[in-house]
Amino acid sequence: MTGLGDNKAFLYLEAVNVWGLSLVLLAAATFLVLLPARLRVQAGVFLSAAWLPMNLFTDFLQLFVPAKVTFFAGPGLILLGLATTASHVFQRGLVWVLPLFGLAMSVFVLRTADVSYALVTRLGWSFGALAFSGLAVYTVDTGRYRETLGAFTYGAVLPIGLAAAALVFSPGSGFGRGVGRFFPWGANPNQIGPLFASTGVLALTLMLVENRAGRRGLLAAILVACTGLTLMTGSRSALLILAGPAMLIAAGYRRFVWLAVIGLAGLTAWWLVVYRSGVNVDLARITGGGDSGRLDIARIYFRRLIGERPMLGLLEAGGLNSQQESGVGTHSHNVYVEFLYLGGLPLLLAATGLLVGMAIVSVRMVLAGIATRHSLLLGLGAIPLVMLVHNLTTIIVIYPTNSWYAVVIFSAVALGRLSQYRREGHAAPPAVAPGVAAPAPGVAV
Predict the structure, then answer these.
(1) How many domains does the chain have?
(2) Mapping DSSP to helix (H, G, I), strand (E, B) and coil, where does residue 288 land?
(3) Which residues contact 95 (CB under 8 A, 6 or more apart)?
(4) Is 370 inside a domain boundary?
(5) What is the pLDDT of residues 158-213, one digit of tens each?
(6) 222 and 330 co-located in one domain
(7) Rounded to whole angstroms, how far apart are CA atoms 156 and 434?
(8) Angle of helix 142-169 relative to helix 375-390, nearest 10 degrees?
(9) Per the domain annotation, does 326 fall within a domain?
(10) Which of 112, 154, 233, 281 has its CA 20 to 30 A from that of 372?
């Protein structure tokens, strides 16, 4: 039996020139290998951050379909960079925790109606988890953290710039769906919003460790733009992703006034571009009014699953759809309920164990960041904590076709790596990696 997801997958493959796309991927891999070893991993991160979000722009078929089919390309380039420069990272057990969890999710979809689509999605997530976990273990010192977060941030500028271009070239289509929310080139605001928000958080984190005035100005501009674009989406969960870490960073640095100025600049940019253009933006969503009904949907899922197939989820009854429960008409909009839907209580309990451990480490790192005013600890520590709340209204973190899952996995595993330094008595990541020569006096790291 072929499900809806399988049909979509086949349609995507039929819409692209597979051989031509394969040659492009081969050329990208060749280009990466020919780069100096010190640049390969960061180049992979940059290309991944630039390419992965392109699958959100459904009105741009020339970008949307190839990006959808090659969602694995970015993680693949990162793995290629790691394999050719730092293969030792795969010897650490921490790298394999989330990929193995992804493989466990794959087992539970083997009897679904859309098994091809479901397996590609789950195995793709596991593949991405291996890439971003390996990247986090590779990034062991302050200098590499700055390079990696910089590659994430500057790479994301490309899709963010394309989204912002919709305000100029297609303002009607951007807000033309009658709901007062920003749909740049057809991108769902609940999916593009986390890209804007997480990039803003990374820009803020880098600003506080950047010594060069010009680059700090560029990062401030990215932060302001991301703040304005996040507001335009009308996504409360995206606003949480941006505001939560920003408030923690402000608390650590005692710079509430400074943060308020950045926020005001973002609000001003939003007002100048959108409000004055006459677009009817749905402010009720951001200010707390209105009800999306997601919690009610999650309750329906929970009650039905506990009553019908609590032990093995989709594996307990064959022929079901991996994406949504029949008769409900939509997915659960809640990661914790989604784990119950996919794999029953065993998968939910395994995920809960991982998330509780992640939360404990995150809280410790945030407290250490506040004590030492270290933006890397604050920024990385805040992202998994925000994710725990964000998971209550969305499931995008367990899908490999968005940048949010990449940022979350990298942050979570990086915190596990940093906790090792905490146990050794360090309050922050070392200035240079163990075994690497220290920089000359006066050289910033």
Answers:
(1) 3
(2) coil
(3) 89, 130, 133, 134, 137, 413
(4) yes
(5) 999 999 998 888 766 666 554 567 888 888 888 999 999 999 999 988 988 888 88
(6) no
(7) 30
(8) 50
(9) yes
(10) 154
**Same domain for 393 and 313?**
yes
Q: Where are the alpha helices (DSSP H) in 234-374?
A: 236-253, 256-273, 283-287, 294-308, 335-372
- Quick one: 276 and 313 in the same domain? no
Q: Which residues of the chain have pLDDT under 70?
A: 1-16, 171-180, 253-294, 306-307, 326-329, 422, 424-445
CA-CA distance, 190 to 230, in Å (whole number)? 10
Whether 151 maps to a domain, the answer reads: no
| Domain with 178 in it | 159-290
What do you get for the CA distance between the two ends of the chain, in Å? 56
Q: CB 367: neighbour CB atoms within 10 A?
A: 14
DSSP 437: P
| 200 plus 286 within the same structural domain | yes
Single out the residue of 158, 219, 228 nearest to residue 193, CA to CA.
Answer: 228
Tokens of 376: 């890397």
Query: Per-residue pLDDT tens for 257-270?
Result: 555 555 556 555 55
CB 3 within 8 A of CB 117: yes
Q: How far apart are CA 18 and CA 123, in angstroms?
A: 20
- How long is the chain? 445
